[in-house]
User: What shape does this take?
Amino acid sequence: MIREKAIKILCLYERTGELKNILDKFSKRLKVNDKALLRELVLGVVRYKRLLDYILEQISGKKISSQKLEVRNALRLIAYQFLFTNIPPYAIMNETLNALKRFVKQRKSIGFVNAVGRKISKLVEEKKIFDLLENEKDPFERICIKESFPTWMAKRWKNFYLDKILDLGKEGNTEEEKILNGTQKFLNSLNQDAPLWLRVNRLKIVPEAFERMLIDANISYEKHEFIPDIYKITQKGIDIYNLPGYKEGLFYIQDPASYLAVKLLDPKPGEKILDLCAAPGGKTLSIAHMTGNNAQIYAVDINAKKILKLEENLKKYGATNVKVLKLDITKDYGELENMEFDKILIDAPCSGTGVIRRHPEGKWNKSLELIEKLQGVQRKLLQRAYKLLKPGGRLLYTVCSLEKEEGEENNDIALKHMGYKEASFGEIVEPLKEDIKKNTLRTFPFKYDLDGFFYAIYTK
Ligand SMILES: C[S@@+](CC[C@H](N)C(=O)[O-])C[C@H]1O[C@@H](n2cnc3c(N)ncnc32)[C@H](O)[C@@H]1O
Assistant: This one.
């Protein structure tokens, strides 16, 4: 049943480009273990699509694109299970072939999938499956196939983050080896499943009581090493929606790098604070949490549907003193026209390459054109926000992107042409200090297991 759902979701994803919503829809009413298996299979196939397709084409001698949609996704599913799970071979083959039979009636197709599956099984058992990669002669290309990333994406990161890549790959003997090792580690860190992080919601519960609640429910957790109020749920197979306190809004699911954006903004009780790209509200809620509902918050977003979610979240998590406005701030200041704010947060729409470990479909739906288009929106947001910042106030610009166009290049323009002045992050946790460059900071999954964010802090 799970393989059938997986094939269905993968086919729908290929047709529509939509993944998370479809997965959520098909996961409803499943038992915890089934839900976890379905998620692993679907996200795993999407994450490793390039590698799986390469292996399948090498073994079958046929282009994967020439296969019927259901057949090619069943093939990917079989390859993923053999390469990345401990599911016994007979279960992989039986379950997946039976599922495929619900979509495809031709014996020839089933026989073909069966034959390819058996070859993969044999090569995996003999530990020879990755030898197939030797057919790719270019070593950089080989790494991109192995870690399953588009080459253009990996090449940009290799060039832009060369220092970090060389450091990651430092055990290599030559510069080329260091670059190859480092790139592989960099890409690999974006393939790891992100931990489940929760921010305790101090508007509803004190951390001690929250910890007691987790202990009483036998849920194992760790406190974040250096970011307060953030907890990692270390127990596997947890259904988030059934965690104690979920319905009551006692915690919010949030990566520490997202929470860090608000810590760096440093909101204080009594201040007037603008969250310019607020929905669905992760950071608005963090501002309310940090100021104990004692700041005057304006939360703006362009998207009506997402604003509904934001409003629902404000209610659920007990955030008050928040005025929600639907505005396209690049065109219209609305009632903000004559206002000035002590603090402004711009969590701009972006390519999301820093959260690819959570959204593996992000590997396949990005392009340089998209990044450039987003850069235009981000610059407009920065430029329009300037007027709303009080002299001496602080503005934090952030994106969950690894691209220099959305980070460093925008920072240069903001400082050179928009009137912003560099500010300092102030008191910042020790481990992150070495990654600060003037008024900017970056986080990476390979360092402290954080999502990949860019932050820039300004004053006026
Ligand atoms: C990265 S998301 C924000 C996430 C949110 N801050 C959080 O932590 O939950 C970017 C948001 O910007 C909004 N947005 C895009 N263009 C906008 C514009 N011109 N004016 C206001 N909001 C915009 C999008 O609708 C989207 O909700």
